[in-house]
Write a structure and sequence with these properties.
The relative contact order is 0.09. By secondary structure, the chain is α+β, with helices and mostly antiparallel strands. A five-stranded antiparallel sheet has the order 6-5-4-3-7. It is rod-shaped, with a radius of gyration of 43 Å. The chain is built from four helices and seven strands. The protein starts with a helix and ends with a helix.
Length: 155
């Protein structure tokens, strides 16, 4: 009797240790050792009955679940970076297209002047009496009204 109990404990321990890694999280419940009548050999299969239940495999996230963070990031980037930049570009294009002779402007380099002439890509600025500079039309940053004389009188 003691030998059959000892054998069943050893067998159940080996069974638990030999469980594949994929079943490591499963519950193994050994049953009580079978009672064997004296004089009859104990069958190892009858002595230890283990019940294993197959756990469902963890589900992989779907295509939508994997793509959703990227879509959200692109949406945030569009509203925080791309859309404001496009708005500024449209405003700058409108400013350049509305330039005319006599407008007082500031270039991106900080040069203050009055538009003396222009063609498709170049603007001629008069920065002082008889001093003219040619700058790219795209470098005109803003049109100011009457502020240049105020700034020049302080200098």
């Amino acid at each position: 009797m003691k030998n059959s109990i000892l054998f069943s404990l050893v067998f159940s321990t080996l069974t638990v240790l030999s469980v594949p890694a994929s079943f490591a999280d499963e519950v193994v419940e050994p049953s009580a050792p079978a009672v064997v009548a004296p004089g009859q050999p104990a069958a190892p299969e009858a002595a230890v009955a283990t019940q294993t239940t197959a756990a469902p495999a963890p589900q992989q996230p779907g295509m939508l679940g994997m793509a959703l963070p990227f879509v959200v990031m692109l949406g945030i980037m569009y509203f925080l970076m791309i859309r404001p930049q496009q708005k500024r570009m449209k405003e700058h294009q409108a400013l350049i297209s509305n330039l005319k002779n006599g407008d007082e402007v500031v270039t991106s380099a900080g040069i203050l002047g009055t538009v003396a002439g222009m063609n498709d890509k170049v603007v001629t600025l008069e920065v002082s009496k008889n001093v003219q500079l040619k700058v790219l039309k795209s470098q005109v940053n803003q049109v100011v009204k009457g502020q240049i004389k105020d700034l020049q009188s302080n200098a």
